[in-house]
Queue: 4 jobs
Job 1
Amino acid sequence: MLDDLRELYQEVILDHGRNPRNHRNPPEANRHAHGHNPMCGDSVVVYATVDDAGVIRDVAFEGKGCAISVASASLMTEVLKGKTEAEAKVLFGQFHDMCTKEGAQGGDPDNEELERLQVLAGVREFPMRVKCATLAWHTLSAAMAGTDDATTE
């Protein structure tokens, strides 16, 4: 059963890596930042349209990188639409913990967004890949803070 689940997760990562969702530059974006992972060369620009109430109305990205980096950016854009900036920050913290801390709760059935991101939890076993999975998230955080650049270093 565990092997079947691992295979399914790999398929989801490959699908998002090959066919990323929200891979575009929305002209109405009012936040953006460039992120770079100097260890592997992954590069991403994250764009967000945030309304006056702090709700993320649209989020997209452009860039290139490994399958994990692109899949993470793609999944991030899907789960954050309609969330507030505060909710996005909390979700990033939960996602980061899931990717870095042994025994961290991922796949919480009461948290649909975190459950969807569970496919990337396997990077915890490969510390060098954590930066690939979190690059887009760090970049979005920089965009929300009004910073133009983000790095995984």
Note: The chain has a mean pLDDT of 92.
Job 2
Amino acid sequence: MLKSRFYKSKIEAGCDEAGRGCLAGPVVAAAVILPRNYQHDTLNDSKTLTKNQRINLLDEIKHNALGWAIGIASHQEIDKINILNASYLAMHRAIDKLKRRPQHLLIDGNRFNPYQDIPHRCIVKGDSKYFSIAAASVLAKTFRDGLMEKLSEDHPQYHWHTNVGYPTKAHRSAIRDFGITQYHRRSFQLLPTQLELF
């Protein structure tokens, strides 16, 4: 069972991102503040859940959360400042939008750029350990998947409606056959040997 809190007496926000390893599209982060003793039987790391489970959890999370927000860093920003810094930027933007100011941040992963004067704790595989981080992972992934599915309508050959930008065999084959779109991350190795893409 996941844990409700790290500090029971503080307003705590869990933060996670989605899309770090993708070849196209933005990186999306979410920040979620849950009630102090929140519990849920299904909520877990979004990667372990089915698409339908994630969608079903959306209303549950939004309805019960004391605060939640989404932050985005574009593919252009990823190319400019690198994916790690863009992930931090997306998290900062999500925290910026919270209607309640958290007193402590739980960050999925092992590194983070401090946000203002709010203390934080990095938790490796935190989305499978704390409900607030798991909730953030579900919000971030479902939001980003929706964006990529929408972009896929204009670029169906890249199969973003199923791979949401990750480096699948079909995605890389499409890059090889059709070149890149304006949404691809030019700073990433899009093909094993990067020839004639630009």
Note: The longest strand covers residues 12-18.
Job 3
Amino acid sequence: MNRLLQYISIIFSYSLTIVVVLIFSYWWYFQEFSPSKGIGHWIGYTGGGMMVFTQVYTIRRRLKFLQGIGVRKAWLDLHIYLGLIGPILITYHTTYKLGGIVAVSFWSMVVVMVSGIIGRYIYVQIPVGIADNQDELNRLKGESDLLTKKIDKYFPAGVSIHTIVEELSGMKKVAVYHGLKSLVYLFIGDVLRPFRFFGLRIKLLFRFRLPFKPRREVYRLVREQTMIIRRVILLQVAQQLLDYWIVFHRIFAWVMFNIMILHIVVALLFKAA
């Protein structure tokens, strides 16, 4: 029950935030603000400053003498927060009018923001640095084999539930494909998993006709094995996904910052003139 309330509160808070942003954006659209003066001007500087400050996390990660300052997770959370709020403010700064080379910077920024969200999604799946840990892989596979034996006890000979377990994990195609495709199937598997687990309950009740207590135990074991299979596959592909993401994220960030700096310099020069 507590978990359900937690999910409801998270969904409500995110939905409320989105609604507020949309209402404010609608109001802003009809105001006659200028990107080059007044509040529109300063919102641009604030948003740009936030995007620049996101790089403090990268600098801290690279320089050893800065790594002892603060907690890494707190710096990462700040990096993500500024990487979300900054683009919103810059969007207001544009007054929804884009053209020329500035449009390239803006859409590069959007790609950086979206890829940052995707990167965070990959990052939380598995601790960084564990992707090549063979001992961890062997341990997880051993746990999965043990769960297989426990599940088999509830079914007569010749009846296999392991195909269902593989489908529930949603990881078959993640293991087969590489790069962006495996990321897409990873996300689809996570979205569909609650529906697949509901289908499992139906199958255990009507197809396998298990009594209540065995059905509940099988459901628990299958759920546990499903998440272990998911973790095993992620151990094998997560580092590759992170490598692809880092290259993609950095290229567009480089484009965004260079054009943004050029835009600011030109704006200051014309203002001074």
Note: The chain has a mean pLDDT of 80.
Job 4
Amino acid sequence: MLVKMYNQKGENIGQTRLPSGIFGVKMNSDLVHQVAVSQMANRRRIIAHTKGRAEVRGGGKKPWRQKGTGRARHGSIRSPIWRGGGVTFGPTKERVFKKTIPTKMKRKALFIVLSAKAKNNLLILLDKLNIEKAKTKAMAEILKKLPCKDNKALIVLSKMEKNTILSARNLPKLKTIQAKDLNILDLLSFKYLLIPKDSIKVIEETFLK
């Protein structure tokens, strides 16, 4: 697939052919949905937790003797029917939401989303992305000259580039990610994909093994 290539000034400097094994995969929305749901489940943090009668503090002593008091028999003041007792059937941290998806399926879903971005002209290829000093203004000036200037964009870096990351982190519609860490949740969360040319090689080396 041929796509336009831009420089940092926003000028179209030609076309480049992207690898068809990554950017020419046929759409399969069911697979994308399945992988996206699994990734959201794996990112889920279990916060809600209620204590059962075994976890609540106190209640080690029987409140009164079994017989002869005229009152109902009880073994602990931390029973769920007592005020301050344990909670019955409440949410606990032992819940497991993790879903396992085969690596081949995750990679294919990633390629499907990348292919859709390229097909719909939502992939912006740069010859290079070089920021000498970590300044938000420098990154904002680059974005103003590109087609993604008014939309959310995900920048895919070939390696850890400190100046680029620091320049982009204060822009609300922008996020940086390393090519080796690409995933479909981040791709689906941003309309445009901003990729320097050297990141394509890293994607091939990481996901086409």
Note: The first strand starts at residue 2 and ends at 6.
